[in-house]
Design a protein that fits this description.
- By secondary structure, the protein is of the alpha+beta class.
- The protein has one domain: 2-Layer Sandwich (Ribosomal Protein L30, Chain: A).
- It contains three helices and three strands.
- Strands 2-1-3 form a three-stranded antiparallel beta sheet.
- α1 crosses α2 and α1 runs antiparallel to α3.
C-alpha cells in the first residue's frame, strides 16, 4: 500500500429544501361593516394594535383591499376563515381572502 494516498473529503449534498410558499391574507372593503368592528376583528384574530388595525382598515377602505398578514398557507386560511366567521356571526359581510405571495 502506497503511503502517498491522499484522502479527499467526501462531498455531502444537502437536499434542497424548498421554502413553503407564503400566503397573503387580504382584507376586502365593503360598505356595510362598521369600522370599529373591522378593527376589533383585526385585533382579535390578527393580534394587531388599535393603531395598526385602524391603518389596515383605512387602507382597505381607500384602496379596496389591504394585505393584513403574510404567513404559511394553513395559518393564512385558518385566520381568514376565523375573521369571516366572526363577521358572519355578527351579521356583517366582511371578507378576508387568501392568495399566494408572488
Amino acid at each position: 500500500m502506497a503511503e502517498d494516498t491522499t484522502l479527499k473529503p467526501k462531498t455531502t449534498t444537502k437536499p434542497k429544501l424548498e421554502r413553503p410558499k407564503l400566503y397573503k391574507v387580504i382584507l376586502v372593503n365593503d360598505d356595510y361593516t362598521p369600522r370599529e368592528f373591522v378593527i376589533m376583528v383585526l385585533k382579535a384574530v390578527f393580534r394587531m394594535s388599535e393603531e395598526t388595525g385602524y391603518r389596515v382598515m383605512m387602507t382597505a377602505h381607500r384602496m379596496g383591499t389591504c394585505v393584513v398578514v403574510v404567513c404559511a398557507k394553513d395559518i393564512a386560511e385558518t385566520k381568514a376563515k376565523e375573521a369571516v366567521d366572526l363577521a358572519k356571526e355578527a351579521g356583517y359581510p366582511l371578507m378576508f381572502t387568501t392568495e399566494p405571495e408572488e
